[in-house]
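Researcher: I need the complex structure. Ligand is 2-oxoglutaric acid. Inputs:
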Amino acid sequence: MKVTLCKREVELGGKYLDADLRESNDILGKPAALHERMKENGYLLIRGLQVRENVLRARHRILEHINQQGAIKPGTDPDDAFVNVGGKHAHTMGQRVITHDPAVRSVLESPEIFGFFESFFAKQCLTFDYKWLRCVCRPDGTGAHIDIVYMGRGSTTNLFTVWTPFGDIPLELGPLALCVGSHNGAGFEKVRQTYGKMDVDRDRVNGWFSDDPTEMVDKFGGKWQTTNFRAGDVLIFGMFTMHGSLANTTDRWRISCDTRFQPADEPVDERWVGENPKAHYAWYTEPDKMVAMDKARDKWGV
Ligand SMILES: O=C(O)CCC(=O)C(=O)O
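Model: Output:
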């Protein structure tokens, strides 16, 4: 079966992509083993960490919200998430009115996810107030990138992304995919030392390293992995794990959120916390000052 990963068509089960993300439920509650696996694989997939009913209740709220924005196909049940093609887009990213809605927040800041990180860090943790709640429609998908370039001004080694699907997200809806091996593979060292030192607000380089997942495997190593996600699952990964998404090939919205967790006593990237987070303040504000990624990569020699 062919799928589109980032912007490139690849064979599922071929050289570049499998749907074999490894579950770590077997070591849940064992922090040392979880750290070991994170170090080894660069991610942890925990099935059913969140209470599924709570996730589905939050999904319902998000769909009600984007229906009010005109993003749901008229005459359809919002819970079916049909896209209003040619209509209004859904605006949810960093939108407090929906990210901090009690039903949504009860998932993104649930006792289950805080409990996970407090056990993982063995200390109190915090989550960024800004929440990257995404509604993604056909044919969109996310290009390959690492998160440090967007949020690297605080803790870097103890900062983790949590990707939470709001609903079941099978392959055709465009789930997240990781380039497994990218976080520590020797072939990626120069990428980490160049691109990985970038800050999109300071350097005004667009954040996606590549639209082509195959060049990454061929040049630097690793293999892309994804899975069919279910409401309740979470995918947790570090700042240097390269990731992107499959394209959404359906006529429905793919709804998910990425949030960040770190120990409460470590420095925090000030752009993402507070009542009204500053967020990106220079990135794309003056498009003519932006540096194209291919030019930046030429300079870095990667
Ligand atoms: O959901 C997506 O397509 C992208 C998510 C992402 O980049 C992240 O979780 O850091």
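Model: Summary of the prediction. The CA atoms of residues 95 and 131 lie 8 Å apart.
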